[in-house]
Amino acid sequence: MSETPSTSFSMIYPTSSEGQLPSSRHLSVTHPVVAKRISFYKSGDSQFGGVRVVVNPRSFKTFDALLDNLSRKVPLPFGVRNISTPRGRHSITSLEDLEDGESYLCSHGRKVQPVDLDKARRRRRPWHSSLAITAHAHHSPVPAAAPGMLRAPRRLVVFRNGDPKTRRVVVLTKRVTQSFEAFLRHLTEVMQRPVTRLYATDGRKVPSLQAMILSSGAVVAAGREPFKPGNYDIQKYLLPARLPGISHRVHPKGNARSESRKSVNWKVSIITSDLPNAGTSSQIYIILYGQHRSSAPIYLYGTDGARFQDGCEDIFTIQLWNMNSRKQFYIPVQRWLARDQEDGEICREFPVLNKGQPIFPVTIYEVHVATGELWNAGTVANVYMSIYGEKGDTGSRQLFRSKTSFSFLRGQTDTFSLEAVHLGDLYKIVIGHDGLGPGNGWFLEDVVVKDPTTNREYTFFCHRWLDQGEDDGKIVRELYARDYNIISARQKLEFNRKETWAAESWKFMKGNTLQFYNRLTGGFVRLHPNGTVDAVGKKTDKYGLFDVIFNKENICIFQSHKIRHLSLALDNGSVAGMASGGASTKLRVLYQPNRCALLESALVPGHMVIFDHHGKIADESSAGYANLSKEFVVFVKGMFLNSAVILLATSLCQALCIQPDGSCTGVGNQSEKSYWKVHKISSGICMFESVKNAQMYLRIKDGQCDGTGTGDIDCHFKIKKNLENASISLESVKNPGLFVGLQSDGQAKPVIYTKNGSVFFYPQVIKFGREDPTGISATPSKEEEKIRGSKKRQETPPESEARGPLLSSTAKEISETLLSEDEWKVLVLTGNTGTQANVTLWVYGDEGVTGPISLSKDSSEQLFLPRQEDEFQIEIRNIGIIYKIRIGHDGTSEQPEWNLQRIDTFQVEAVSLGKLQKVLLRCEASDKSQYWYCEKVVVRESGTTSESTFTCERWLPFMSQGIIHSEIELFLQEMQINHQPKIQEGANEGDWKVTVITGDLEDAGTTATVSLSVYGETRCSGPIILGSGKHQLFNSNSADIFKINLKDIGEIYKIRIGHDNRGKDPRWYLEEIRLENIDTRELFCLTVDSWIAENENGGDTWKEMPVVRTNKAPLPVVAYEIYVYTGRKPGAETESNVFINLIGTRGDSGNRRLHQSKNNKVKFQRGQVDIFSIEAVSLGKLKKVLISHNGIGPGNGWFLESIVVKSEEEDGNQEVLFPCNRWLDEYQDDGKTERELLAERSFSAAGDTGSVAS
Question: Among residues 564, 515, 507, which one has the least CA distance to residue 539?
Answer without folding.
Answer: 515
